[in-house]
Amino acid sequence: MIISHKILVSAASLSALLFAACGQQSGDATVDPAADPAANSGVAIPDEPAAAIETIAKELAAGNGDVLWQAMPATYQTDVNAIAQLAGLKVDAEVYDQSFALLGRLAEVADKQKDFILNTELGGAQSGEQVAKLEAAWPSIVGLVQTIASSSIASSAGLQSFDGQAFFSKTVSELLGHSEALSTFSDDAMPLSSFKDVVVRALESSENAATLEMTAPDGTVETESFTRVDGRWVPVGMAADWQETIANARGQLEAITAEQVAQNKTQILQLVGMLNGVLSQIEAAESQEQFDQALQGAMMPMMGLMMMQQNMGGGQQAAPAMPMPSQP
Questions:
Q1: Does residue 324 lie within any of the structural domains?
Q2: Segment 201-224, tens digit of pLDDT
Q3: How many domains are contained in the chain?
Q4: Cα–Cα distance measured from residue 85 to residue 100, given in angstroms and rounded to the nearest whole number
């Protein structure tokens, strides 16, 4: 994995996941679209390519998710907003909103029953080291889910009025804030705080093209070619694929019919109701034995959900995964 992708592993992957997930719950700040984006974030991204990429890395190390939005070319920003808003028009509001409400409830119950979750032996006993890592990361695990479940994309109305700048400024920044603890679960993940020490230098540079060498804190060195789009430096591969990726995403969404959306609605809502019932039993558990029994009771609804997703194919609630900026 090249360094520029490592720099975005926490933010871009999570953000893409949000767009692919099944009154307004948005906690995102309202941003004046006429205002200068750089002034809103407090960050000026340099014109020089190496300085631009290094600035983005250091801002991410500081937990500033807004810099990812500012790093996108203006046309890309327009595309992201348009795709999210179109997805909001295509999903079934009741199914979508109840699904995210269930996600928020899951986080609440998990936080309340943390000790039972950490001590369950269903699925196999965990080592003391694994439990300790999980316990240390627990606030961030729960916080990450709560951030998603309370964001602007957690309701169909929020999607319809999606504002990428507000979303990245608030929601993605919060996700970045949880990423440090979560990086301990992967030997491959570069902790967010280490991004501040990434060194970038230009091997070749012209007005609209650059080849950059990026050195990670561990000494790993990678090179990548960038091109300038709307005054922003974008990896060459991403720039080449962007229009096709956006066209495919728009085509998939526009092809969704009302009949497809309604096809499995009753079954999905019944399943959401079942899962809410199981969560109530898990929440009410007062012993490890009661908790384990309630957790076993969740297996059947979960199997039903997986089978339903397989049967639905691609025509129900999921929006296409959004392309994300691949620069640091």
A1: no
A2: 999 999 999 999 999 888 889 999
A3: 1
A4: 17
